[in-house]
UniProtKB/TrEMBL annotation:
Catalytic reactions of this protein: Dipeptidase E catalyzes the hydrolysis of dipeptides Asp-|-Xaa. It does not act on peptides with N-terminal Glu, Asn or Gln, nor does it cleave isoaspartyl peptides
UniProt function note: Hydrolyzes dipeptides containing N-terminal aspartate residues.
Predominant place of localization: cytoplasm
BP-aspect Gene Ontology terms: proteolysis
Protein name per UniProt: dipeptidase E
Single annotated GO MF: serine-type peptidase activity
Alphabetic keyword roster: Cytoplasm, Dipeptidase, Hydrolase, Protease, Serine protease
Amino acid sequence: MLSSRQILLLSTSRVHGYEFLEYAKEHIDKLLRGNNVTNLLFIPYALKDHDFYLARVDAVLSKWGYNVTSIHKGDPKTLIQAAQAIYIGGGNTFRLLKALYDNDLLDLIRKRVLEEGVLYLGSSAGTNVATRGIHTTNDMPIVYPPSLDALKLVPFNINPHYLDPDLNSVHKGETRQERILQYQELPEAGVVIGLREGSMLLIENNTMILKGLCKSRLFIPGQEPQEIDVGTDLSHLLNR
């Protein structure tokens, strides 16, 4: 029952000039408090030190009035079953996805978010794993998950931390845009949204809007990449 999904996907948790998650506080508050949710289940699997990561997140969200429980403090499936909202943070996307597979959590999280209305907040790697697959992550494959297929909360890929070419740079390697276009040469590839730092996607029911501080970049196979302004309705991409 896809009409129940409420998802906020952040490019990053840290933006220059802002404290941790601060740039997205208005949208996080609206998503959570608008649904009378003050308890979050945090999934810190993208970093090795789960206690350190929990302390960093809790230090911020507790000041905002939220109670944070980490999935590594109990039985993962039991905690997901009881969660009002799930927050998956950034780090290494391959490490994160492997841990979700190792704990047999993908189907359960997908069901809870898409069928039971549990709120989902993702940043960076947590945004990558919300998509159809992690093919467009920027991270190194330091571990190998069984598959690149991810949670499939949305039917496209995202490239968090999307960077534009630096016209003053002497670096001759591929740009981020070239990398994404190389991915889209594959017959199974689909839409990719390049989320620049400070941008985010808000998905409510069957509506998706670009939010945040700046424009993003849309890559549709067979078409020229295009700029998308903050406030653009991208709902049609949910049905591709």
